[in-house]
Amino acid sequence: MLNADCRHDPRWLCRDGSTVSGPKDQLPPHSLLPGKMLWRSLLVATISSHPWLLTPALRTLSLIAHPRLSFLDVNKNAILRGILKTTFYNHFCAGEKAAEVTGTIDRIKHMGFRGVILTYAREIVVDASSQKVNNPTTNNEKANAQTTKSPEVEAWRQGVLETVEMVGTDDFLALKLTGADPQVMHALSSNQPLPEQMIFALQDVCTRAIERNTRIFVDAEQQSVQSGIDAVALDLMRRYNRNGTAVVYNTYQAYLKSTPENLLSHLGIADKEGFTLGVKLVRGAYINSEPRHLINDTKQGTDDSYNAIAAGILRRQYGFFGVERQFPSAELFLATHNKESALAADSLYKERLATGQPTTKVQYGQLLGMADEVSCRLLQLRDDSSQAAQKASPEVYKCLSWGTLGDCVSYLLRRAVENRDAVGRTKQEYYALKTEARRRIKNMFSLRW
Ligand SMILES: Cc1cc2nc3c(=O)[nH]c(=O)nc-3n(C[C@H](O)[C@H](O)[C@H](O)COP(=O)(O)OP(=O)(O)OC[C@H]3O[C@@H](n4cnc5c(N)ncnc54)[C@H](O)[C@@H]3O)c2cc1C
């Protein structure tokens, strides 16, 4: 754990044995990690960056996610449970119960993060591409589905409401709509209204989130459900983003060719109807399951689109908005592990504020257990020396999933695959963590002698 006062001392000594001298922005970003987190990150990065370790680890996780033998079931095998919990689970997830989750949130905020994005890991896994859900096919079945209460939607509502109670002022709650129930999935993919029960569940969640000063992210998912999700998010923004600030944010995926046009259309709706557009910008996570023609031809194309949208919203000039038409009220959240995108946005934001130009507020987020170099680098750029400097400083969030170990295994598998796909960054993270571990060991010995 970082010593509470150590960051204010020019030569700070942290409880984990790390001594740090000089201005904090000249230190390696990982110097901000508490000791326990550093060693766990090093273990995970070692596995993720060595294919001969990662391949069997992925296979084992995949077997544990769908256990056919009882010794692979985390609910039946205490040893397996203990190993997984103290390593991968604690690295990527917030906790199994409220007390554990709030403890993790406190530790994250104590490190200097502005807040957290919390999501409930339990979800119904439905195959969106093949639509293998028990969709109602006849009119009778459809009518029944509308009138019968779904226990899954009720479980989702209760789980999400429990999640709201764990977060606080300015934190975010992330909602994965398809996690609720196959009927919801069906409504989203066929652009039909959500089942009434789900509409009420969303209202309950938004009302409670507003009471607790918490904001809401509507997560983006596969293309087959995305226009349905956009419609729900717009409805929520119409209703709740009324006082010049965003309570609800929709997620925009820069890898889709259609996103710039879609965003322009949403800016137009926000302008016409007078609500604030909450924009959470991601590159997009479903690249391997989407039809290839919908996605930018190259990674560079996605990067350019991401950076152009981020810069456009920050400058309040995107398409004809801010040029021919006024730019509507908007707020921006950059959910990215890409250092170049985050640092470019931060420089632009500071430059615009310093020169008094119109600027949209921006915040940043990375997943817990991933891209700590980016998160910590942004934290190091904080400057509390004056009110103006404080206002221009990046506000950084960590995105956490909570739920029982059994509920989170699929989530852990997704993170492990994402680490495998981001080979370059995983290697870089591994080398940086190794250097930081060596630095701390050296410091410990030099202090002792
Ligand atoms: C806080 C947070 C919330 C998130 N929420 C969502 C969400 O709601 N929905 C969602 O879909 N994702 C979400 N993501 C995941 C995100 O979309 C990315 O998959 C992930 O963050 C990696 O992208 P990056 O910006 O970090 O940068 P990088 O790692 O630099 O970029 C990787 C991304 O580039 C794109 N890409 C890679 N290769 C190609 C190629 N050949 N052609 C075109 N594009 C390519 C893909 O989108 C890939 O994910 C979230 C991520 C974070 C950190």
From TrEMBL:
Entry GO MF terms: FAD binding; proline dehydrogenase activity
Family membership noted in the UniProt record: Belongs to the proline oxidase family.
Main function: Converts proline to delta-1-pyrroline-5-carboxylate.
Catalytic activity entry: L-proline + a quinone = (S)-1-pyrroline-5-carboxylate + a quinol + H(+)
InterPro entries named in the record: FAD-linked_oxidoreductase-like, Proline_DH_dom, Proline_oxidase
Biological source species: Aspergillus tamarii
Keyword tags: FAD, Flavoprotein, Oxidoreductase, Proline metabolism
EC numbers on record: 1.5.5.2
Protein name per the record: Proline dehydrogenase
Biased composition (Polar residues): 131-150
Superkingdom of origin: Eukaryota
Record keyword Oxidoreductase present: yes
Name of the top EC class for this enzyme: oxidoreductase
GO biological process: one example: L-proline catabolic process to L-glutamate
GO cellular component: mitochondrion
Proline dehydrogenase domain boundaries: 103-428
Pfam families: Pro_dh
Region (Disordered): 131-151
Alphabetized SUPFAM superfamilies for the sequence: FAD-linked oxidoreductase
